[in-house]
Design brief:
By secondary structure, the protein is of the alpha+beta class. It has helices at 2-14, 35-78, 81-103, 107-127, and strands at 130-132, 145-151, 162-167, 170-172, 175-178, 180-185. Among the domains are: 60-128, no CATH class; 131-186, Nucleotide Exchange Factor Grpe, Chain A, domain 2, CATH 2.30.22.
Length: 186
Amino acid sequence: MEDKEVLKNDMADSNVGIPTDENAAGDSLLQEPVAEENETEKLQAELAEQKDKYIRLMAEFENFRRRTAKERIELIQTAGKDVIVSLLDLMDDCDRAEKQLQSGTDIAVQKEGIQLVFNKIRSTLQNKGLKAMESIHTDFDVEKHEAITEIPAPSHKLKGKVMDEVQKGYYLNDKLIRHAKVVVGK
């Protein structure tokens, strides 16, 4: 009987770590790396990398948003700067004309000087893209004209046409910026 126990102990010593029962735990099998653990670590590393990219992208977008908002505010504040600068020369001409009106006595010279100022104003605005709308004797168009009143047309040909212009309409770089206020023949 002793021999059986020794044999049993020897077998137990030789099979250390190998489970004989499928439900029994063995320590030698647990020492090998499991493929699932490596995959989990790999996925966690990828997740951390994607989180880092996302955070960087959000920070970059926020910086872009702030920068464009600042640029937009600056653009709005200085949008009319070049027009104002070009009008400063006209203001100087107006000041000189006003001074001449107060001190001069020759009406013809004063009229000529004022006409030069008016022409300079018109040419400066045209150079900036302003164009007056031609409305008189054209067909009434609700997209371009605002009818102030209707009057009887002197001839059948002028019905539905613009008879008079109360206030001019203007285009800025071929875009309508002010409708013409007109009188229409009926």
